């Protein structure tokens, strides 16, 4: 059996965990493929060169139950093996997405022999708008025979990965199912589900939730009266009964998380690399969604942004208010990962770092806005990876991700060291275009030792541009600045300080080992006479000003040392 130290694994850091591959910390620069891409090694042969040119080092792609077990008991990994060999050739790692029983709250990726046998694998039934029962393409999560069959197939996949890939670590993580839950209703209305809903809530689960000291804040907010329920006696409606839909959603969360937990445990027993599941998020307030630039056709916010009601978003999935039930039941999962498109990016990062679990974003926007946001996730929230969806239909020369990933790759050594040992010394941030309908945060501030650092957009005489980057405190007032389109101002937090300024600053290059070298010493115009340090955009807007005092971006890496002085009365 492979040990947890010679295969990809998560290693605890000061306040979270870091992915380790081949014995070294690894910063994923990932993208998620379209759902069908990884099913064909021939198709992927056209994808690898473009991904390499884009500086992608990890691809997420699906492995479907229907492909690996087309006939019950007979497994076929031949196409997957060819894909893995292709990834190795280009030195690209893989995160496999197990599309087993559940994918986007449906069961469309199960084998034909599962789909057609409703006696052995009964379906979920929901109520339509007229109150009639309706059969949907979703396997019942209450069915032991279904989770046993899924677990058997997933265990076979993980066993094969151990045998085929352990010595190479091409596959570094696996996602168990995809956006699990129930759409169209808040709970299953089948006879077995109805009977179970009327029974007392599982005593062990209720006792755990009542005794746990740090429940997710959104669980606490939504269910403050849960601690008054009686273990062994209170039904789901008794425990969560202020709103029947809440009780039904938590009932389904328990069912789905137990199912996924059983499947994950079967795979973990075969090959214990990191496992996670992802979530189709909900929203409580639609005004918090960032819909700028989104064509608001019928259903668009619901599909991309979630929904405000269980059943509009997948009921029972691992949304923040169901996080604790999932963590209790699915112990073989190392973390839960949010698919993040239209929600407030920083808020979701905060919610899915709960309990110091590692942050991984398996799906997000692939446009320029998405590329800018990854700096925040990696910098301020210690992300192990942020994965734009549909990356294989982008061209490396046309996307901002090529620049972003190239820059992050070059300084990954410094990011990983700060994430692991000094998370308080690293901050990420971004600025969107100034004319967007919904303006984002315009100033980012954090204290590092005795210095307060403020980040704003880069100064220009004309129209300010977008920007994104990181600041890493290296000690003694020295900061590593990464990115473009921003400026950094320093202020001493010492009440006796009478002046804070820039002591020294240099533009940096980086070699293949990640070591920094001085390119130019920067002063004067490049620091606005010591007022702040500018990390300019590629094409600063001079706004008609006759002197080109702002230089264009070049390496997008700099070191800047700030200092402060204390003066006595006789110094004035």
UniProtKB/TrEMBL annotation:
Residue span(s) of domain DUF5597: 402-532
Record bears the keyword Iron: no
Protein name: Glycoside hydrolase 35 catalytic domain-containing protein
InterPro entries membership: DUF5597 (IPR040719), GH (IPR017853), Glyco_hydro_42_N (IPR013529)
Domain of life: Eukaryota
Entry keyword set: Glycosidase, Hydrolase
Pfam name, any one: Glyco_hydro_42
Keyword Hydrolase part of the UniProt annotation: yes
Residues annotated as domain Glycoside hydrolase family 42 N-terminal: 50-199
């Amino acid at each position: 059996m492979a040990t947890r130290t010679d295969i990809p694994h998560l290693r605890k850091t000061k306040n979270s965990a870091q992915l380790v591959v081949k014995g070294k910390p690894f910063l994923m620069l990932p993208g998620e493929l379209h759902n069908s891409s990884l099913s064909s090694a021939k198709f992927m042969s056209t994808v690898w060169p473009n991904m390499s040119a884009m500086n992608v080092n990890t691809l997420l792609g699906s492995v479907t139950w229907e492909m690996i077990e087309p006939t019950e008991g007979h497994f076929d990994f031949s196409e997957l093996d060819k894909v893995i060999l292709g990834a190795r050739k280009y030195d690209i790692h893989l995160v496999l997405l197990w599309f087993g029983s559940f994918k986007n709250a449906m069961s469309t990726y199960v084998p034909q022999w599962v789909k057609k046998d409703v006696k052995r694998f009964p379906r979920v039934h929901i109520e339509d708008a007229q109150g009639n029962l309706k059969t949907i393409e979703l396997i019942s999560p209450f069915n032991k025979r279904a989770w046993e069959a899924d677990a058997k197939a997933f265990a076979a996949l993980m066993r094969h990965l151990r045998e085929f890939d352990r010595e190479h670590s091409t596959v570094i993580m696996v996602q168990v199912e995809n956006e699990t839950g129930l759409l169209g209703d808040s709970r299953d209305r089948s006879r077995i589900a109805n009977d179970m809903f009327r029974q007392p809530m599982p005593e062990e689960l209720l006792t755990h939730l009542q005794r746990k000291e740090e429940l997710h804040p959104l669980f606490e907010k939504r269910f403050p009266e849960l601690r008054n329920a009686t273990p062994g006696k209170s039904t789901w409606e008794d425990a969560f009964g202020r709103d029947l839909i809440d009780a039904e959603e938590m009932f389904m969360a328990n069912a789905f998380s137990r199912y996924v937990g059983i499947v994950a445990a079967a795979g973990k027993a075969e090959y214990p690399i990191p496992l996670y599941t992802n979530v189709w998020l909900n929203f409580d307030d639609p005004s918090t969604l960032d819909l700028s630039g989104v064509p608001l056709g019928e259903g668009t916010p619901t599909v991309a942004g979630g929904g405000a009601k269980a059943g509009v978003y997948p009921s029972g999935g691992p949304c923040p208010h169901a996080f604790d039930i999932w963590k209790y039941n699915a112990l073989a999962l190392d973390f839960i990962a949010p698919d993040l498109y239209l929600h407030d990016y920083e808020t979701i990062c905060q919610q899915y770092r709960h309990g110091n679990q590692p942050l991984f974003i398996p799906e997000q926007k692939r446009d320029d806005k998405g590329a800018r946001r990854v700096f925040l996730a990696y910098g301020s929230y210690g992300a192990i990876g942020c994965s734009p969806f549909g990356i294989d239909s982008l061209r490396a020369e046309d996307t901002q991700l090529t620049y972003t990933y190239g820059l992050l790759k070059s300084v990954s050594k410094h990011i990983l060291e700060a994430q692991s040992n000094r998370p308080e010394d690293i901050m990420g941030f971004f600025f969107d275009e100034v004319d967007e309908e919904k303006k984002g945060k315009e100033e980012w501030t954090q204290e590092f030792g005795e210095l307060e650092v403020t980040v704003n957009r880069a100064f220009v005489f004309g129209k300010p541009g977008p920007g994104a980057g990181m600041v890493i405190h290296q000690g003694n007032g020295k900061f590593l600045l990464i990115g473009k389109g921003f400026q950094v101002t320093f202020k001493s937090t010492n009440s006796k300080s009478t002046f804070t300024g820039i002591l020294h600053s240099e533009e940096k290059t980086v070699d293949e080992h990640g070591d920094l070298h001085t390119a130019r010493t920067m002063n004067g115009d490049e620091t606005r006479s010591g007022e702040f340090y500018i990390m300019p955009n590629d094409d600063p807007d001079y706004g008609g000003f006759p002197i080109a005092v702002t230089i264009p971006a070049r390496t997008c890496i700099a070191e800047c040392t700030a200092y402060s002085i204390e003066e006595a009365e006789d110094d004035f």
